[in-house]
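Why predict the complex rather than its parts? Because the way molecules touch one another can change local conformation, and only a joint prediction can capture that. The input here totals 993 residues.
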Amino acid sequence: MNALPCTIYVSFLGAALALAAGTRSAAAARIVALLTALTAWGITLAAARSFVPTAGLQELVNAAWIPELGIRYHLAADGISLTLLVLTGLAATAGVLFSWNIEHRTGEFFALYLALIGGVYGVFLSADAFVLFVFYEIAIVPKYFLIANWGSTNREYGAMKLVLYSFAGSALVLAGLLWAYGAGHATGFGFPELIAATGRLGLPSQVGVVALVFTGFATLAGMFPLHTWAPTGHVAAPTAASMLLAGVVMKLGAYGCLRVALPLSPEAFALLQPYIAWLAIAGILYAGCVALVQEDFKFVIGYSSVSHMGFVLLGLAAANPAAVSGAVFQMFSHGVVAGLLFAVVGRMVYERTHTRRLADLRAMPLHKLMPFAAVVFVLAGLASMGIPGFSGFPAELTILIGSWQANPVWALAAATGVLIAAAFTLRAIQVSFFGKVERGVPHALERVESNAHHHDFPPITWPEKLGALLLLGATIYLGLSPDTLFNWIRPALQSPVFQSILTGGAS
Amino acid sequence: MTADYAGLFHALRPEIHLVAGALLVLGFDLAWARHRPANRHHVALLLGTIALLMAGYEAATLGATGRVFGGAFFYDQLANLTRTGVIGLAVLALALLPHSAKLRHPAEFTAILLFATTGFSLMAAANNLLVAFVALELASLSLYALAGFDKTSPASAEAALKYFLFGGMSAAFLLFGFSLLYGLTGSINLNYIAAHLAQAQSPLLIVALVMILAAFGFKAAAAPFHLWAPDVYQGAPAPAAALIASASKLAGLVLFTRLLWPGLGAAAGTVAHTPITVGWAPVVALIAGASLLLGNIGALAQSNVRRLLAYSAIAHAGALLLGVLAAGRVGPGSLFYYAATYGLATVGAFGVIAALESSGRVQSLTDLAGLSKRSPFLAGCLAIFILSLAGIPPLAGFFGKFAVFASVLKVGGLAGPAGWLVILAIALSAVALYYYLLILKQALVAGVAADAAPVRVPLPARLSLLIAAALIVLFGVWPSLLLGLF
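Output of the joint prediction:
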């Protein structure tokens, strides 16, 4: 456990090294990036092996940082943090493998990539709201350059939109935290101090604080109607960045909601609960329906991410032990599955066919041309639909059970979303991989013929296979043995901080 | 007034070094360097830097707190730090002195820059109205000359004229305000004025206050007194613009805070007194709010790099005035931290522009295109400066904003006299990120023509940029280095 803070330092050090190595050769930068990601992931796995679940955060570092403002450099972890740390390591390593083909300014790419990862590790380890906020913002800026420099479709627009949404969200968080800190006469930004300070405010102010902080974090989690940055950003991003964005960065928002916003004031949260739940359900249904009619393969996955993150938010809103542990599980599961889907679409298919239009893909017998990609996508699609045996199933099931306990109408409405998810995933699988060359569609044919050598696509490379197998292995393992994660998450929810909310929401 | 010359000479050691250095630069140039045109620039730069460094050392080691010369000069931690700060910023600005035919009188430029720094330094130590006014005018007159120093450029002449006209007007306002204050209280010493105001107040005081506020609004480029700033930032030579935007602002804000809190703190309408009455606190709050709005929204429309920086400076003036409002209650630490680190980032941004200008035109944002190819060093430094201005952690700009907001909220929470301003400032910071990213987009993302030449950065400018960037990161990662001094 005590080595966990090294994940942050290793990542930032690796970023500097990758930048330096990139000036010599692209291969050196790649290897530095891979070693860095593996080292950090290894640290999280080692910590996971020796992890003894307890209620409450386990202290890692606690040192004075800005004593003038009562801010401490305070890192700690519990089962929830650990779940997401392992996810970050996994997604980061797979992301490096899927970016193996980046030739343009490779050193800079991996430097920004690893800096982003460092920020993410920092967020998941923070036990002080200010430290969390700092790492959160550190994770925002590299995204802009990753997308604007290495992205595809409409990249500058997508990058700017994504960063401005994230930053506006973090501005709301900052306003809320400062409100609690200033008006509540807090002595610092540690979670207990902030909770105590919020408690000193009147109920209307408490509602204001919780609403600001929650909305701010939920913007990054893709909460309807503040989700519009997500599909645009995901589509514009290079493959590894969209894997990280959907897989890990959106989790920062959900994690902030759970770790910071919810505990601030249980009373205020209880008042906001139904609104959050209905927004989450609206997100599940709306994004699912939009995904159903998308013509761009990556947009399908982009909207499916919003829909799946809606389940996480619903789990948080339902606020009982089942729902919240399901939400954390879903964070992990969606991180892995979205990573896989983006890897197949962005890296395997798009890099070879140079198109993401479903109409064009329909005209190519992709299941024959790239069977590996087809198998991976089908399996990832099954996981995404929540089929038993994959990680999506225990996640969505526990969320639905929890929401039923809180309010059966929520569960019924959200369950419709599962059906929609099955519909758009099956459509994507069918159209993209198992389409037939349709003689009657001249436009698609033109595209296919212009891409005359599509029958000899370059084979799937070993880094791609390795990355896909890592992620697939994780989703299947957790589908078969979900208790691995639940055994970390459930004890963490026993801590007094969460208990004050979870009992309130179970009625 | 008792004249204690020994004490005066002790307390004013930094200023004495600065003035002596300025005279030495001029004398050396006259006697020796002007016959060796190739070395003139280097000699001026070297002598000027040595004088500044010695003065900076004196200011940093002055230590004690006290009043000298009948209370005309006051020095404490804040005064000494401000003097060290302005001198440090002047060193960084001087290093940008362009080595080109455009600036044919490097020694004169250096000397005037040293005089301006003397003015800033005295402003930080002023404890009576007369010294404050003289110091301010010494600084201002020097800056007018520096702004117009590029005699080949009509824009520089325009900058100097605009700056002079607005500055002259603000001096008139200030003098009027000061004379009313003297008439009301019978003293020019801030301590006497404060003592007098605590006992008796007159309606005329409000007029005096408004005059003083307007004058400092001009100096700080705060809305609605900001109109000179875009033209001056655009036209002045880069080292002059850097000095105007950084050291001048730091010194001006510290003097302003000193006048308001210890001098006029007892006046009606201060935060300490009653929040909602006519007086200076609500007016400062209004000026701050207007600056935040006008600066940020104005910057959105700019396509010229320097004008964009000018509008962003107006926005930062708004946030700095928030720090002035809080300074009386929670101490000047957050204000000083913000102003000093903002100065570093601005000197740096102008330094990058100066380095680029030496190898070509820098007018519109698109002239920055492909900077990361042409000079990775400049692009990296620019990223640090701009992200610090935008308030992105772990750079110093973020902690500056955060400290100022937190100290304002300590005074009364969001419902307090300036709570709404914090909300406004935080909301506008997302707007600000947009235009800052436009700069970085050109520098780091946009492509560049194949024939674009690499940029050569002269060694002094390279050092100056490196130091500014390193300090921004250092003060960001370890804010207590500065905040802990108060």
